[in-house]
Amino acid sequence: MKPSIRLLEGRRVLVTGGARGLGFAFAESIARAGARVVIADILADRVQQAAAELVAMDMDVTGLVVDLADPASIDACVTAACQCLGGLDGLVNNASVTNSGGKTCEELDIDTWDTVMKVNVRGTWLMTRACLPALRQSGTGAVINLASDTPLWGATNLLAYVASKGAVIAMTRSLARELGKDNITVNAIAPGLVLVEATAYVPEARHRLYTEQRAIQRAQLPEDVSGAVIFALSDLARFITGQTLPVNGGFVMP
Questions:
Q1: What's the rounded Cα separation, in Å, for the pair 116 and 104?
Q2: Total-model pTM
Q3: Looking at residue 198, what is its pLDDT?
Q4: Catalytic annotation present for 210
């Protein structure tokens, strides 16, 4: 997506999981919309390569390493991001793991469940908590949590992931009420099945089924989600908070 209007001019935004897939698409689109961006990812080599690619396109992007399962790593990342950007106006909690794809409730093991919850739920909470002082100081802080449409229709054989993204939606509502007094908005974006590396495990037949059951009958690409993220970070959404926006081509219409 290449916005014709620079809705995020001068904003400072941290995007987690920005080294590839949806996160990289978000980082590129947010930077094109005028923001200065820090992308943070556990993939050390890849995050630097991703940042370099965007810098080569004359975007103000920096790469940092973070492990969302490690609270100390999260704190260090946020400190470095704020030093780099001179503050923070927006946070995109994009990073997550699936791990449980294809496993039934009975096949799912405790270690996998705990890993998914540690990154997707606890990591989202800790990253948000670490960013709050800077977001409060901004005066127009915005938090975007990447959920999923799977909790909205009850995807099977994906229990840990679905539960974690349902928790993200619930946290979004609670945080929105808690942080509204600080003029910080908190919203969730719930994509459908997007064609990225992370969904490579999904059988081709299931991709076809998604496409056939969408109102817009084509594959969903990362750039299809970027516009919603830019809008939610912008001043156009300053009176919108606690909401979950499905972006799935009409697969789910809650």
A1: 15
A2: 0.94
A3: 66
A4: no
